[in-house]
Structure formats: structure tokens, C-alpha cells
Amino acid sequence: MIKIKKGLQVGSQSIAFDDPVHIMSSASVVGPKEGDGPLKDTFDKIVEDATFGKDTWEEGESEMLKESISIALQKARLKTEDIRYLFAGDLLGQLIATTFGVMDLKIPLFGLYGACSTMGEALALASMTVHGGYADTVIAAASSHFGGAEKQFRFPLEYGNQRPMSSTWTVTGSGAFILSKEYGDVMITGITTGKVVDYGVKDSLNMGACMAPAAADLIYNHLKDFDRKPEDYDRIVTGDLGVVGREILCKLLSDQGINIASIHMDCGMEIYDDEKQDTHAGGSGCGCSAVTLAGMLMNELRSGETKRILFVPTGALLSTVSYNEGQTVPGIAHGVVIERGV
């Protein structure tokens, strides 16, 4: 094992926590399509109305985020005033799903944008804050909505455009996690912060190809920083590479002498059944990794079925402006080491 200085940085871009940060509770809220998928029994709440009783997709996403935070608080038996900070984000411009969703909670907010990697970024920053002694209890959360994301980045749903097989389906879902200094049998023991990686891909309908290089770079540097091998993990979990991105990721790492194929899992490939649900390459969006971690993966960790995972959600850093100006689609990934306590 690598010798780690107490609470300090390791390697080129990682931090190992000598005193782990505990996950007190987690919660997941999803829409109807996700509720019909293979992970339906792992979610806390499935809503049959994709607008969540509101007038617009965006208002619905705000309501969904608020509900996931509320469920996480109930599980931890806490109130909003017990929370020092909230780290949260979404895919929409100016983080409107987050800001309108949490406005009434009156919790000090760090609004985050890491595209689909936002759940990893939120967990990383939240755990650093707790470990550093700047807060006893914080919330990390993220959300996305298929209708809102399509309208902003691609075409309104009414347009009825055809989607190529390389495309992914933005998950309508929100995940929330409460982190604490002392309570919780699942813990965050380290993080690796990703760099922006650009392989020159310009196809915004092939998110897997855009994000896979960033995931490969993150995993390679994480293993180097922590002096670990893939087999030191039960699972290396990417957020939303889908079928296309997974193949690229495994090839890029194999070229570096790293084989993760047997332990790799992609949330986007787990959340939908493509044959039955016609989602093509898989799922994506901030909510994809958030609800899969909050549900299935946390269940496995709490039960002891899984002892240690490397959680690596990935994000495509584009906007309608950059895309329409012919820019490439860079990617980023963030890594979080999550372990079952002894």
C-alpha cells in the first residue's frame, strides 16, 4: 500500500482521506421510463408523470431534485437546518433546475456544473469540505431530465427527430447523498479530480466517444496516484459512456497495459433495457450515475456484497454556443473511492 501523509494530496491529482467521510443516507427519484427499467426496484420513488405535476420539464426537474433531498433528509433523520452546505448541479443553463429547486430550502449552496460528471464533482467537493473540518454535515446532489436536456442541447421533443444508434438517452432522475464526519457504514476514502481531455470529437450525438478519453485518463492517473491495480476494486463504475464509450475506454486503457473489462460497469448500460426501451447506446445525464449510485450501488455496498468501488461519472463539456460555432466536445471525469466500513 502507498504511504499517505495525513489528509494530504497523493500523486498528481488525488486526495486520500486518512479519516474517511461517511455517507449517512442516499436517495433516488426517477421518471416513468427509468421506473420501467432493470433497476426499478432500487429507486426510492418512481413518478409516473414526467413533469412531476408542474407545467414544464424544467420545473419538474426542480421538483424531482427537491424530493430526492427531502427523502435523503428523512432517512438520516435530519432537517434542512442541520445541513451546513449543499453541493448540487444539473445540465441546464445557469443551473435553473437546481437553483429553483433548492431555493426554498435555505441551505447555503455551491452550484456546480460538470455536465454528466456533476455527481462525482459534488461528492468530491462535499467530502473535501467535511474532511477539512469546514462542515459537519453536507448534501451532494445532481439531476437531469430527458425533456429539458433534449430541448436545450438537441431538438424539442415535438420535432420527432431520429436518433443515431450512438446516441444516449438522458435519464430523468435525481440522486442526493448526505455526508457526515461520523455516521454511516459506507465511506468516501479518496478522490481523483479529472482534467479536461479533448480528442477532437465533434459529434454531439456520440457522447460516449467524447467522454471515454477523459474516463481513461482519470482511471489511469487514479491507479498511478494510489499505487493500485484494477483488481483492488470490486467495480470500476463509469457514469454514462454507454456501449460505444465502454468499448473505447477499455481499448484506451488496454493500450496502457490496464485491463478493467472484467470489473467495469457503466451506469448508462445498467439503467435501461435497450431491446425493450429503445435507448440505443444507453443512458446519460447527471441523474444517470446519481440514481444508480444512490440505489443499486449503495445497496451493494451496505449489504457487503461490494467492498470497494471507484465511481467515475463523465461529462461532455459542450453548449449550444460551442456546438453551433463548430467547436469540439471535450470531456471530463471525476473519481470517488467509496468503501464499505469494517
Task: Describe what is shown at a glance.
The chain has 342 residues and is α/β, with parallel strands linked by helices. The protein is built from eleven helices and 16 strands.
Q: Mind explaining what this structure looks like?
A:
- The protein has helices at residues 32-35, 57-76, 96-102, 118-131, 146-153, 207-226, 242-254, 267-270, 274-277, 286-303, 320-324; strands spanning 9-10, 14-30, 45-46, 85-89, 109-112, 137-144, 169-170, 173-180, 186-192, 235-238, 264-266, 283-284, 308-312, 314-316, 331-333, 335-340.
- It has 342 residues and is an alpha/beta fold.
- The protein folds into 2 domains: 9-180, 3-Layer(aba) Sandwich (Peroxisomal Thiolase, Chain A, domain 1), CATH 3.40.47; 186-340, Peroxisomal Thiolase, Chain A, domain 1.
- Strands 1, 2, 3, 4, 5, 6, 8, 9, 10, 11, 13 and 16 form a 12-stranded mixed sheet that branches. A two-stranded parallel sheet has the order 7-12.
- Strand 2, helix 1 and strand 3 form a beta-alpha-beta unit.
- It is globular.
- The model has no long low-confidence stretch (mean pLDDT 90).
